Amino acid sequence: MVKIGDVELGEFPLLLAPMEDVSDPPFRALCKQQGCDMMYTEFISVEGLIRDAHKSVQKLDYERPIGIQIFGAKEDSMRRAAEIVEEANPEVLDINFGCPVKKVVCKGAGAGILQDIDEMVRLTKIIVESTNKPVTVKTRLGWDESTKYIVEAAERLQDIGIKAISIHGRTRKQMYKGEADWTLIGKIKENPRMHIPVFGNGDIDSGKKALEYKNRYGVDGIMIGRASIGYPWIFREVKHYLATGEELPLPTVKERVTAAKKHLEFSLEWKGEKLGVLEMRRHYTNYFRGFKNIKHYRSKLVSSMVPEEIFATLDEIERVYSGYEFVV
After folding, report:
1. Active-site residue list
2. What is the pTM (predicted TM-score) of this model?
3. CA–CA separation, 172 vs 115, rounded Å?
4. What domain range is 206 assigned to?
5. Which terminus of the chain has a lower count of CB atoms within 10 Å, N or C?
Protein backbone atom coordinates (compact mmCIF):
# COMPACT_ATOMS: atom_id res chain seq x y z
CA MET A 1 0.00 0.00 0.00
CA VAL A 2 1.44 3.36 -1.06
CA LYS A 3 0.85 6.10 1.50
CA ILE A 4 1.58 9.81 1.62
CA GLY A 5 1.63 10.42 5.33
CA ASP A 6 -1.58 8.72 6.45
CA VAL A 7 -3.25 9.03 3.03
CA GLU A 8 -3.65 5.57 1.49
CA LEU A 9 -3.54 5.53 -2.32
CA GLY A 10 -3.56 1.84 -3.25
CA GLU A 11 -0.84 -0.50 -4.47
CA PHE A 12 0.30 1.50 -7.50
CA PRO A 13 -1.48 4.85 -7.64
CA LEU A 14 -2.06 6.98 -10.71
CA LEU A 15 -1.89 10.71 -10.07
CA LEU A 16 -3.22 13.60 -12.13
CA ALA A 17 -0.45 16.12 -12.70
CA PRO A 18 -1.03 19.77 -11.84
CA MET A 19 -1.50 21.64 -15.12
CA GLU A 20 -2.34 25.32 -15.32
CA ASP A 21 -5.83 25.94 -16.73
CA VAL A 22 -6.26 22.17 -17.24
CA SER A 23 -6.44 20.31 -13.92
CA ASP A 24 -9.34 22.39 -12.63
CA PRO A 25 -12.37 20.98 -10.75
CA PRO A 26 -14.35 20.11 -13.92
CA PHE A 27 -11.48 18.09 -15.34
CA ARG A 28 -10.48 16.56 -12.01
CA ALA A 29 -14.01 15.25 -11.55
CA LEU A 30 -13.84 13.42 -14.90
CA CYS A 31 -10.43 11.95 -14.10
CA LYS A 32 -11.65 10.79 -10.71
CA GLN A 33 -14.55 8.98 -12.40
CA GLN A 34 -12.08 7.20 -14.67
CA GLY A 35 -9.91 5.86 -11.85
CA CYS A 36 -7.41 8.58 -10.95
CA ASP A 37 -6.22 7.86 -7.40
CA MET A 38 -5.06 11.34 -6.45
CA MET A 39 -5.34 14.72 -8.06
CA TYR A 40 -3.39 17.93 -7.77
CA THR A 41 -4.74 21.42 -8.30
CA GLU A 42 -3.37 23.80 -10.86
CA PHE A 43 -0.44 25.49 -9.18
CA ILE A 44 -1.40 28.45 -7.03
CA SER A 45 0.78 31.52 -6.60
CA VAL A 46 1.54 32.07 -2.93
CA GLU A 47 1.47 35.82 -3.56
CA GLY A 48 -2.02 35.43 -5.01
CA LEU A 49 -3.17 33.35 -2.07
CA ILE A 50 -2.01 35.74 0.60
CA ARG A 51 -3.66 38.63 -1.28
CA ASP A 52 -6.82 36.51 -1.42
CA ALA A 53 -6.83 36.80 -5.22
CA HIS A 54 -10.12 35.49 -6.60
CA LYS A 55 -8.61 33.14 -9.17
CA SER A 56 -6.16 31.63 -6.69
CA VAL A 57 -8.78 31.06 -4.03
CA GLN A 58 -11.12 29.53 -6.63
CA LYS A 59 -8.56 26.81 -7.23
CA LEU A 60 -9.06 25.59 -3.67
CA ASP A 61 -12.33 23.89 -4.71
CA TYR A 62 -11.55 20.21 -5.13
CA GLU A 63 -12.30 16.54 -5.45
CA ARG A 64 -10.70 14.18 -2.94
CA PRO A 65 -8.08 12.99 -2.34
CA ILE A 66 -6.39 16.21 -3.41
CA GLY A 67 -3.03 17.88 -3.18
CA ILE A 68 -3.07 21.67 -3.33
CA GLN A 69 0.05 22.82 -5.15
CA ILE A 70 1.68 26.17 -4.43
CA PHE A 71 4.64 27.97 -5.96
CA GLY A 72 6.70 30.92 -4.83
CA ALA A 73 10.16 32.01 -3.78
CA LYS A 74 9.67 34.32 -0.80
CA GLU A 75 9.98 32.79 2.65
CA ASP A 76 7.25 34.79 4.42
CA SER A 77 4.79 34.32 1.57
CA MET A 78 5.41 30.57 1.41
CA ARG A 79 4.83 30.24 5.14
CA ARG A 80 1.59 32.23 5.05
CA ALA A 81 0.35 30.32 2.00
CA ALA A 82 0.96 27.04 3.80
CA GLU A 83 -1.24 28.26 6.64
CA ILE A 84 -4.03 29.21 4.21
CA VAL A 85 -3.82 25.86 2.44
CA GLU A 86 -4.02 24.03 5.75
CA GLU A 87 -7.26 25.88 6.50
CA ALA A 88 -8.65 24.53 3.19
CA ASN A 89 -7.91 21.04 4.56
CA PRO A 90 -6.59 19.10 1.55
CA GLU A 91 -4.98 15.71 2.04
CA VAL A 92 -1.59 17.01 0.87
CA LEU A 93 0.27 20.27 0.32
CA ASP A 94 2.53 20.11 -2.74
CA ILE A 95 5.33 22.49 -3.67
CA ASN A 96 5.95 23.24 -7.33
CA PHE A 97 9.67 23.16 -8.08
CA GLY A 98 9.16 22.05 -11.67
CA CYS A 99 7.17 24.59 -13.69
CA PRO A 100 9.45 25.70 -16.56
CA VAL A 101 7.41 28.73 -17.69
CA LYS A 102 9.47 31.90 -17.92
CA LYS A 103 7.10 34.10 -15.89
CA VAL A 104 7.43 31.68 -12.96
CA VAL A 105 11.12 30.84 -13.35
CA CYS A 106 12.25 34.47 -13.56
CA LYS A 107 10.94 34.98 -10.02
CA GLY A 108 13.10 32.12 -8.72
CA ALA A 109 10.02 29.94 -8.32
CA GLY A 110 9.03 26.68 -10.01
CA ALA A 111 11.98 25.14 -11.86
CA GLY A 112 13.92 28.36 -11.27
CA ILE A 113 14.96 27.07 -7.87
CA LEU A 114 16.77 24.12 -9.48
CA GLN A 115 19.70 26.50 -9.89
CA ASP A 116 20.05 26.60 -6.10
CA ILE A 117 19.40 23.25 -4.39
CA ASP A 118 20.34 24.66 -0.97
CA GLU A 119 17.56 27.25 -1.32
CA MET A 120 15.17 24.57 -2.53
CA VAL A 121 15.82 22.55 0.63
CA ARG A 122 15.64 25.63 2.88
CA LEU A 123 12.25 26.76 1.52
CA THR A 124 10.87 23.25 1.70
CA LYS A 125 11.89 22.96 5.34
CA ILE A 126 10.01 26.17 6.08
CA ILE A 127 6.84 24.74 4.51
CA VAL A 128 7.19 21.42 6.33
CA GLU A 129 7.50 23.26 9.63
CA SER A 130 4.54 25.55 8.82
CA THR A 131 1.86 22.89 8.35
CA ASN A 132 0.53 19.69 9.84
CA LYS A 133 -0.34 18.44 6.36
CA PRO A 134 1.91 15.99 4.52
CA VAL A 135 4.19 18.01 2.23
CA THR A 136 5.20 16.68 -1.18
CA VAL A 137 7.37 18.10 -3.95
CA LYS A 138 6.96 18.10 -7.74
CA THR A 139 10.18 18.85 -9.60
CA ARG A 140 12.44 18.05 -12.57
CA LEU A 141 15.81 16.41 -13.11
CA GLY A 142 17.66 19.72 -12.93
CA TRP A 143 18.05 23.10 -14.60
CA ASP A 144 20.01 21.74 -17.58
CA GLU A 145 22.19 18.78 -18.57
CA SER A 146 25.03 19.93 -16.32
CA THR A 147 22.90 20.37 -13.18
CA LYS A 148 20.99 17.10 -12.79
CA TYR A 149 21.22 16.98 -8.99
CA ILE A 150 17.88 15.29 -8.43
CA VAL A 151 19.25 12.14 -6.76
CA GLU A 152 20.98 14.20 -4.07
CA ALA A 153 18.11 16.70 -3.86
CA ALA A 154 15.49 13.98 -3.35
CA GLU A 155 17.40 12.53 -0.42
CA ARG A 156 17.92 15.93 1.18
CA LEU A 157 14.23 16.79 0.76
CA GLN A 158 13.22 13.51 2.35
CA ASP A 159 15.56 14.20 5.27
CA ILE A 160 13.84 17.50 6.08
CA GLY A 161 10.41 15.92 6.10
CA ILE A 162 8.63 15.66 2.74
CA LYS A 163 6.36 12.62 2.42
CA ALA A 164 6.60 11.96 -1.34
CA ILE A 165 8.28 13.31 -4.46
CA SER A 166 7.11 13.43 -8.08
CA ILE A 167 9.77 13.88 -10.74
CA HIS A 168 9.32 14.92 -14.36
CA GLY A 169 12.02 13.27 -16.44
CA ARG A 170 13.22 16.42 -18.18
CA THR A 171 15.34 19.44 -17.27
CA ARG A 172 13.97 22.95 -17.24
CA LYS A 173 15.97 23.74 -20.37
CA GLN A 174 14.20 20.93 -22.22
CA MET A 175 10.77 22.33 -21.33
CA TYR A 176 8.55 19.58 -22.85
CA LYS A 177 10.79 18.74 -25.81
CA GLY A 178 12.52 15.46 -26.51
CA GLU A 179 11.90 12.22 -24.67
CA ALA A 180 11.57 12.12 -20.89
CA ASP A 181 14.53 10.34 -19.26
CA TRP A 182 13.52 8.29 -16.21
CA THR A 183 17.03 6.94 -15.54
CA LEU A 184 17.70 9.20 -12.57
CA ILE A 185 14.21 8.57 -11.22
CA GLY A 186 15.17 4.90 -11.14
CA LYS A 187 18.43 5.75 -9.35
CA ILE A 188 16.47 7.55 -6.64
CA LYS A 189 14.45 4.36 -6.09
CA GLU A 190 17.70 2.37 -5.93
CA ASN A 191 19.02 4.59 -3.14
CA PRO A 192 18.73 2.44 0.02
CA ARG A 193 18.19 5.57 2.15
CA MET A 194 15.01 6.54 0.31
CA HIS A 195 11.79 5.39 1.95
CA ILE A 196 9.17 7.90 0.77
CA PRO A 197 7.07 7.22 -2.35
CA VAL A 198 8.69 8.26 -5.63
CA PHE A 199 6.35 9.00 -8.54
CA GLY A 200 7.55 9.21 -12.14
CA ASN A 201 6.15 11.71 -14.63
CA GLY A 202 6.70 12.31 -18.31
CA ASP A 203 5.50 10.72 -21.57
CA ILE A 204 3.23 8.03 -20.08
CA ASP A 205 0.45 7.74 -22.65
CA SER A 206 -0.56 4.06 -22.55
CA GLY A 207 -0.95 1.11 -20.24
CA LYS A 208 1.87 -0.71 -22.01
CA LYS A 209 4.32 2.12 -21.40
CA ALA A 210 3.16 2.50 -17.80
CA LEU A 211 3.87 -1.18 -17.11
CA GLU A 212 7.24 -1.01 -18.86
CA TYR A 213 8.34 2.02 -16.81
CA LYS A 214 6.94 0.58 -13.57
CA ASN A 215 9.04 -2.55 -14.03
CA ARG A 216 12.15 -0.81 -15.38
CA TYR A 217 12.41 2.03 -12.87
CA GLY A 218 10.64 0.64 -9.80
CA VAL A 219 8.56 3.76 -9.12
CA ASP A 220 5.77 3.67 -6.54
CA GLY A 221 3.23 5.19 -8.90
CA ILE A 222 2.89 7.31 -12.00
CA MET A 223 1.80 10.90 -12.49
CA ILE A 224 0.03 11.54 -15.79
CA GLY A 225 -0.21 14.98 -17.34
CA ARG A 226 -0.55 15.85 -21.02
CA ALA A 227 -1.87 12.41 -22.04
CA SER A 228 -4.96 13.06 -19.92
CA ILE A 229 -5.92 16.36 -21.59
CA GLY A 230 -9.25 15.69 -23.27
CA TYR A 231 -8.73 12.01 -22.54
CA PRO A 232 -9.55 11.13 -18.90
CA TRP A 233 -9.90 7.48 -19.98
CA ILE A 234 -6.11 7.17 -19.82
CA PHE A 235 -6.46 6.36 -16.11
CA ARG A 236 -8.84 3.44 -16.59
CA GLU A 237 -6.82 2.18 -19.55
CA VAL A 238 -3.56 2.17 -17.60
CA LYS A 239 -5.16 0.52 -14.58
CA HIS A 240 -6.72 -2.18 -16.72
CA TYR A 241 -3.46 -2.92 -18.51
CA LEU A 242 -1.50 -3.06 -15.26
CA ALA A 243 -4.04 -5.55 -13.87
CA THR A 244 -4.55 -7.74 -16.94
CA GLY A 245 -1.88 -7.00 -19.56
CA GLU A 246 -4.69 -6.30 -22.01
CA GLU A 247 -5.77 -3.10 -23.71
CA LEU A 248 -9.31 -1.83 -23.28
CA PRO A 249 -11.38 -0.89 -26.32
CA LEU A 250 -11.14 2.81 -27.10
CA PRO A 251 -13.99 4.93 -25.70
CA THR A 252 -16.98 5.03 -28.01
CA VAL A 253 -18.25 8.10 -29.81
CA LYS A 254 -21.10 8.34 -27.33
CA GLU A 255 -18.70 8.13 -24.37
CA ARG A 256 -16.52 10.86 -25.83
CA VAL A 257 -19.39 13.20 -26.60
CA THR A 258 -21.00 12.59 -23.21
CA ALA A 259 -17.71 13.34 -21.44
CA ALA A 260 -17.16 16.49 -23.50
CA LYS A 261 -20.67 17.69 -22.65
CA LYS A 262 -20.24 17.01 -18.94
CA HIS A 263 -16.91 18.76 -18.98
CA LEU A 264 -18.37 21.80 -20.73
CA GLU A 265 -21.38 21.92 -18.40
CA PHE A 266 -19.17 21.83 -15.32
CA SER A 267 -16.76 24.35 -16.84
CA LEU A 268 -19.59 26.81 -17.53
CA GLU A 269 -20.98 26.34 -14.04
CA TRP A 270 -17.64 26.78 -12.34
CA LYS A 271 -16.03 29.50 -14.46
CA GLY A 272 -18.86 31.36 -16.10
CA GLU A 273 -19.72 31.46 -19.79
CA LYS A 274 -16.74 33.23 -21.34
CA LEU A 275 -13.92 31.52 -19.46
CA GLY A 276 -15.80 28.25 -19.37
CA VAL A 277 -15.98 28.20 -23.18
CA LEU A 278 -12.41 29.39 -23.76
CA GLU A 279 -10.68 27.01 -21.37
CA MET A 280 -12.50 23.98 -22.80
CA ARG A 281 -10.97 24.49 -26.23
CA ARG A 282 -7.67 22.77 -25.47
CA HIS A 283 -9.54 19.55 -24.69
CA TYR A 284 -11.54 19.03 -27.88
CA THR A 285 -8.64 17.81 -30.04
CA ASN A 286 -8.04 14.86 -27.73
CA TYR A 287 -11.70 14.13 -27.10
CA PHE A 288 -12.06 13.48 -30.81
CA ARG A 289 -8.59 12.30 -31.75
CA GLY A 290 -8.68 9.59 -34.41
CA PHE A 291 -11.94 10.80 -35.96
CA LYS A 292 -11.57 10.95 -39.73
CA ASN A 293 -12.46 14.33 -41.29
CA ILE A 294 -13.12 15.89 -37.87
CA LYS A 295 -11.41 19.20 -38.70
CA HIS A 296 -14.65 20.94 -39.71
CA TYR A 297 -16.38 20.09 -36.43
CA ARG A 298 -13.32 20.83 -34.31
CA SER A 299 -13.12 24.25 -35.94
CA LYS A 300 -16.72 24.91 -34.95
CA LEU A 301 -16.05 23.79 -31.38
CA VAL A 302 -13.10 26.14 -30.91
CA SER A 303 -14.51 29.18 -32.73
CA SER A 304 -17.93 29.56 -31.14
CA MET A 305 -18.46 31.53 -27.93
CA VAL A 306 -22.11 30.42 -27.64
CA PRO A 307 -22.60 27.35 -25.41
CA GLU A 308 -25.80 26.30 -27.20
CA GLU A 309 -23.93 26.20 -30.51
CA ILE A 310 -21.16 24.10 -29.00
CA PHE A 311 -23.62 21.60 -27.51
CA ALA A 312 -25.36 21.42 -30.89
CA THR A 313 -22.04 20.67 -32.60
CA LEU A 314 -21.35 17.92 -30.07
CA ASP A 315 -24.77 16.42 -30.79
CA GLU A 316 -23.98 16.57 -34.50
CA ILE A 317 -20.66 14.78 -33.97
CA GLU A 318 -22.44 11.99 -32.10
CA ARG A 319 -25.02 11.67 -34.88
CA VAL A 320 -22.57 11.78 -37.80
CA TYR A 321 -20.01 9.43 -36.26
CA SER A 322 -22.39 6.94 -34.66
CA GLY A 323 -20.89 3.48 -35.08
CA TYR A 324 -17.59 4.95 -36.22
CA GLU A 325 -14.53 2.66 -36.32
CA PHE A 326 -11.50 4.49 -34.94
CA VAL A 327 -8.24 4.68 -36.83
CA VAL A 328 -5.50 5.15 -34.22
Report:
1. 99
2. 0.91
3. 10
4. 3-244
5. C
